Structure formats: structure tokens, C-alpha cells
Amino acid sequence: MARKKIALVGAGNIGGTLAHLVALKELGDVVLFDIAEGVPQGKALDIAQSNPVEGVDATMAGGNDYSVIAGADVVIVTAGVPRKPGMSRDDLIGTNAKVMAAVGEGIKTHCPDAFVICITNPLDAMVWVLRELSGLPHTKVVGMAGVLDSARFRTFLAEEFDVSVQDVSAFVLGGHGDTMVPLTRYSTVAGIPLPDLVKMGWTTQEKLDEIVTRTRNGGAEIVGLLKTGSAFYAPAASAIAMAEAYLKDQKRVLPCAAWCDGVFGLDGLYVGVPVVIGANGVEKVVEIEMNADEQAMFDTSVEAVRGLVAASRELMPK
Ligand code: APR
């Protein structure tokens, strides 16, 4: 059986890390596309030369023409600009909405059967632009945010409790911005919900609140430290988990920016919710119950996403 083809649109920090992870995990052959001449070709060559050392088989190619993504099974999109210190993800919209429109056209022309994962920010609006311009089914276009936000939450919780990250599961819903909704009730250590762990004296409510705030600001914390760009290792790992769920039909339950129409009280909006990812793409949206406080936070987040989508609509080619 031929290997799967993974197209990476954007060969910057995240794109390069994605290519390396695809190779290490032997998920398929890689093509990198970027407008920067030489960059996708150079990264492809460099990673290809690491494959004999790692003992993995995957071809690596790079190009500056959309034809390189032809026939891809999975496309992961990171094209655009990242944040600089002091910027919010929303500040990127002017540049990145136009980039997403071009990428959407490229996917429509060259690989309309692909499963598409968007990472470019502001995420929930950019995945909407990508879907609109590519014309793919909504189930085949999804945004990576919740896996990353939940991973950040899990990291901080595991540190606080001094337990393995493997035994901490966490749920973060809503938009990938300051209004994201870390759901403590649905986050557990080996099945024990966080509010119970507070009662058991494992932590305090104050400490938990601090961790929630740190999770919300997780991206900005890294931008502040790096100064020249934003996080890339954890975002890449998170998107790879989603791609792997699709390619291996794992039916994983992951929080993703997915199309919500007739669920969660929404009538057509990309926002972070739990979904099942398998061979058909987004196979199910898992409609969990929220209490009044959680619903209020989710509603605020939804409103923020609606604003960004409206702004993106204005920026799109007529
Ligand atoms: N088409 C293709 N590639 C493009 C385009 C375009 N129109 N415009 C920019 N790029 C490329 C750049 O040349 C660069 O190589 O996108 C790449 C982006 O890489 P980085 O600047 O290193 O950014 P990265 O850290 O990878 O983040 C990319 O993901 O998490 C989000 O907020 C982040 O929106 C940002 C994106």
C-alpha cells in the first residue's frame, strides 16, 4: 500500500516541527509548501537527512507552487504570521485572513479530498475562512486549539499534583483566545474530577484558579519569553495527534475547533468543542452538559468568535 501524503502549508517553526514529527512517527510522505523561496526545500532536505539516522522511511519534498500539495490525504495549515509580544491572536486577522483565502483556493484546486487541520491564528475565524474558500465538507476541515490548550492545562495540573501527565485529562472548550473555557468539572486525575481533588486537599481553589488563568494565557507566556515568535513544539504535537486520529481511524475524542450547526445551541460556527475524529474526519460532536457558569463563559467565547468571523468576512475576496 502506498504511503499517505501529508501536505504542510507553511514551512516556518510549526511547519518544520510538523514535518519532523510526521517522519519520526512514519505517518506518511511529506510535502512542505511556503511562499518563502528555498525554505520548504531546505527544511525537507534537512529532515530527509535525519531519517537514515532515525531509521524511518518517509520522503520529504518542498516547493513554492501549490501543485506540490496535489492529492494530499492530510493538509496542515500554518501559513501566515505569528504573534509578537504585546499582540493578541486577534491582531493577526488582517494578514492571515487573506493568506487563508489563498490556501483555501489551493486546497480546492489540488486536494479536495483531504482532511484539513488549521493552526493559523486567530484560529476559530481562520478555520472558517479556510472552509469557505476550499468548499470542502465541514467534517473535513477542523481547527487545532483545544488539544493544545488542554495539554497546557494538563502540564500545569500534573506539576501541581506531582503526578504523571498521562494520568491527567483536561477539557478546554470555546474559542482559542482569552475567552477560552477550561472546564474543571470535566478535568480529572485518573478519573477524579478537579473539584473533588480540591475537597481531598490535593490543591486549593485559589491555586486551581491560578492554573486556569495560566492556561488561558499559555500562548502569551511563551510569546513573552521567545520575543520573536510564538509556541511551536506543543502546537505541532497537538495537530499531529489529530492527523494520526484521522489516518489511523482511531476515533479519538479530542477538543477541536469544529463546525457546530444544531449543537450547543449554535447555528453554524466554528468553535472549540469535543469531537470524535476517525477516518471520516469529524465523525461526531460530543454535546456535553454545561452548568450555568460554564455556559455563560462559553457564550462569551462564542460571541468573541462571532466577532472575528464577521471581521474575516469583510476581509475576504468578494
Ligand atoms: N502562503 C504560504 N506560506 C506563507 C504565506 C502564504 N501566503 N504567508 C506566510 N507564509 C509562511 C511564512 O513564509 C512562514 O514560513 O508561513 C510561515 C509561518 O511560519 P512562522 O512565521 O515560523 O510561524 P509559526 O510559528 O509556524 O506559526 C504559524 O500558527 O500558531 C499559529 O499564530 C501562529 O498564525 C501563526 C501560525
UniProtKB/TrEMBL annotation:
Residues 148-304 form the Lactate/malate dehydrogenase C-terminal domain. It is an enzyme of class 1 (oxidoreductase). One of its GO terms (molecular function) is L-lactate dehydrogenase (NAD+) activity. Gene3D superfamilies: Lactate dehydrogenase/glycoside hydrolase, family 4, C-terminal (3.90.110.10), NAD(P)-binding Rossmann-like Domain (3.40.50.720). Keywords: NAD, Oxidoreductase, Tricarboxylic acid cycle. Its EC number is 1.1.1.37. Residues 5-143 form the Lactate/malate dehydrogenase N-terminal domain. CDD domains: LDH-like_MDH (cd01339). Substrate binds at residues 83, 89, 121, 152. The keyword Transcription regulation does not apply. Transmembrane segments: none annotated. The keyword NAD applies. NAD(+) binds at residues 10-15, 34, 96, 119-121. It catalyses: (S)-malate + NAD(+) = oxaloacetate + NADH + H(+). Catalyzes the reversible oxidation of malate to oxaloacetate. Belongs to the LDH/MDH superfamily. MDH type 3 family. This is Malate dehydrogenase. It comes from Roseospira navarrensis.
